[in-house]
């Protein structure tokens, strides 16, 4: 008999969960099930919990990304003429006017709660199992539960829980200030039963020992904040949960286990971590696997690339961007003096040696690069932060690229699609008519530096699916966390060494003579904060960093100075109305 396992907002949804076929190989098999039902097959239940990492949660711009990035200086989604108004819900995330009825807040809360629900179901199923992989599946399910719960208490200050082995047990509300220590202990206890990455058919898409080390480093780095997020200052060097040093000592300890692991190394081409084929990146520790779902309606999304690209920018005749998200002037100008940093921008070189310089000198590029599945020509835009006049192909009335007589793709100066006399000139300054509202007229829709960090996958429609795996923890993340832990422990020399390891391990493209990044000679808190942005921009890391560094409450473009209660999002009103278990967060 099917029964509700954990009811959130008093809803039951029909969902497709993925069964794992074979021993621990996570091959795809779709079956229909009711959310929260007791799934007899522990592999299917565990696959459903993994699937929820996709399904928009960590891959769509409007969920965890929106809360972790649109609320910061790294990203905003303004209203552009007739586009992206949507009742102001996107602007609210940057203008700090969200409330308990915000669609974006409610959507993120629900998706994370689905992850908690599916993880609890996987734990229950694994507990009932007698299979040889029982201990492994149980540890992975508990690891996923910890990851979803940690993300939820970070964003919302509280998260639901129910005893997975008692469907009649009452819902418990886990509060951030006490739950963070519980989660640390739980994840540490899982390590003996987790697999090492690349053993037992595991990979970066599975919760392995290495994923646990990364999560523990993250939790220890933010432990002081979670214990009192609205405080005026944080004690980052208090004694760790299980003794044996401070919180920062634990960040360093768990980071060392990853940095010293020969399976991981920093990619010299920084942008390979965000390529469509990034599943072979040597930095990946824990990621949302999208490749297997590309082309289906399960767990995959192209938003991280699609949202920032102008509509007139077309990777193939069948694809375009949507002219939405951009970065703020504050973040762009933080790169002053660092435009030669390999993480800032990278030009694309075709197989015949042609470079796309995107500077007006390009006449044509070869059409030998083809979109898989359609065979149509693939135009490769450059990566990283795109500023100034943009260039690219033009679509003819027959729906194909304009080509030269010898079959190359012609390159043109681009004008915005919805204002054809307005050059697609991405300006660092935003200059909203009303500085407190992120609203552009149709004559202003070109404004804002765009982020092409993530490779656009042209195989599955404009805003469709993607084969790019979304990194949750990669080696660059770990170096940055360890650098901060060293810094907060007073070891500035070691912190500077880690920052410089990141800077100098990356190399530019051949147009810049493959030059590596330049090492720094000194390090202070503001420089360290800036460097974290260089390494981790748009990776759902910035809000946590801004809170730790005391930057989150400060005013900025289209953002007023804010009160500390805004460091935590409200519990959706629909949840408050449906359940007496939750209480609203202060300030809302």
Automatic annotation (TrEMBL):
List UniProt keywords, sorted A-Z.
Cell outer membrane, Membrane, Signal
What is the designated name of this protein? RagB/SusD domain-containing protein
- Per the UniProt record, the source organism is Chryseobacterium takakiae
Q: What does the sequence similarity comment in the record state about its family? A: Belongs to the SusD family.
Residues of the signal peptide: 1-19
Q: Where is the RagB/SusD domain?
A: 282-588
The UniProt entry lists the main location of this chain as: membrane
* Domain SusD-like N-terminal positions: 40-221
């Amino acid at each position: 008999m099917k029964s509700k396992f954990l009811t959130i907002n008093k809803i039951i949804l029909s969902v497709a969960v993925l069964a794992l076929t074979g021993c621990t190989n996570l091959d795809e098999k779709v079956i229909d099930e009711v959310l929260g039902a007791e799934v007899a097959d522990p592999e299917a239940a565990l696959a459903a919990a993994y699937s929820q990492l996709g399904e928009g949660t960590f891959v769509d711009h409007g969920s965890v990304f929106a809360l972790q990035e649109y609320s910061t200086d790294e990203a905003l989604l303004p209203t552009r003429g007739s586009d992206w108004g949507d009742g102001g819900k996107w602007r609210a995330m940057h203008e700090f006017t969200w409330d308990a009825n915000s669609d974006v807040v409610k959507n993120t809360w629900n998706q994370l709660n689905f992850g908690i629900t599916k993880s609890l179901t996987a734990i229950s199923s694994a507990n009932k199992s007698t299979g040889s992989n029982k201990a492994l599946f149980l540890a992975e399910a508990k690891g996923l539960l910890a990851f979803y719960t940690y993300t939820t208490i970070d964003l919302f200050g509280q998260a639901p829980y129910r005893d997975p082995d008692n469907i009649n047990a009452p819902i418990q509300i886990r509060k951030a200030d006490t739950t963070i220590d519980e989660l640390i202990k739980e994840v540490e206890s899982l390590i003996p039963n987790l697999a090492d990455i690349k053993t037992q058919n595991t990979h970066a898409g599975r919760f392995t020992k290495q994923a646990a080390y990364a999560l523990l480093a993250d939790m220890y780095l933010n432990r002081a904040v979670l214990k009192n997020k609205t405080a005026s200052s944080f004690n980052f060097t208090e004694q760790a949960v299980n003794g044996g040093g401070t919180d920062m000592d634990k960040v360093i300890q768990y980071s060392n286990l990853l940095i010293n692991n020969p399976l991981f190394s920093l990619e010299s081409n920084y942008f390979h971590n965000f390529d469509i084929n990034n599943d072979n990146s040597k930095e990946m520790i824990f990621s949302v696997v999208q490749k297997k779902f590309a082309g289906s309606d399960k767990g995959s999304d192209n938003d991280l690339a699609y949202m920032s690209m102008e509509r007139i920018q077309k990777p193939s005749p069948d694809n375009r961007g949507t002219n939405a998200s951009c970065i703020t002037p504050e973040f762009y100008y933080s790169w002053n003096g660092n435009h030669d940093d390999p993480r800032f921008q990278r030009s694309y070189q075709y197989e015949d040696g042609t470079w796309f310089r995107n500077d007006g000198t390009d006449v044509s590029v070869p059409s030998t690069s083809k979109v898989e599945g359609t065979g149509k020509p693939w135009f490769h835009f450059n990566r990283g932060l795109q500023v100034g006049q943009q260039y690219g192909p033009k679509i003819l009335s027959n729906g194909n690229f304009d080509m030269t007589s010898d079959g190359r793709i012609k390159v043109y100066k681009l004008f915005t699609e919805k204002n054809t006399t307005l050059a697609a000139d991405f300006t660092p300054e935003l200059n909203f008519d009303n500085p407190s509202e992120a609203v552009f007229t149709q004559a202003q829709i070109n404004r804002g530096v765009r982020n092409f960090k993530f490779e656009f996958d042209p195989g599955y429609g404009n805003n469709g699916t993607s084969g790019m795996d979304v990194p949750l923890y990669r080696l660059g993340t770990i170096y940055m966390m360890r650098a901060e832990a060293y810094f907060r422990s007073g070891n500035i020399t070691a912190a500077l060494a880690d920052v410089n390891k990141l800077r100098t391990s990356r190399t530019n493209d051949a147009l810049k003579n493959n030059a590596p990044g330049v090492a720094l000679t000194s390090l202070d808190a503001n420089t360290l904060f800036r460097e974290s942005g260089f390494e981790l921009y748009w990776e759902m890391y910035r809000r946590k960093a801004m809170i730790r560094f005391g930057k989150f409450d400060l005013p900025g473009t289209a953002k007023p100075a804010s009160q500390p209660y805004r460091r935590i999002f409200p519990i959706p009103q629909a949840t408050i109305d449906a359940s007496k278990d939750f209480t609203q967060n202060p300030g809302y």
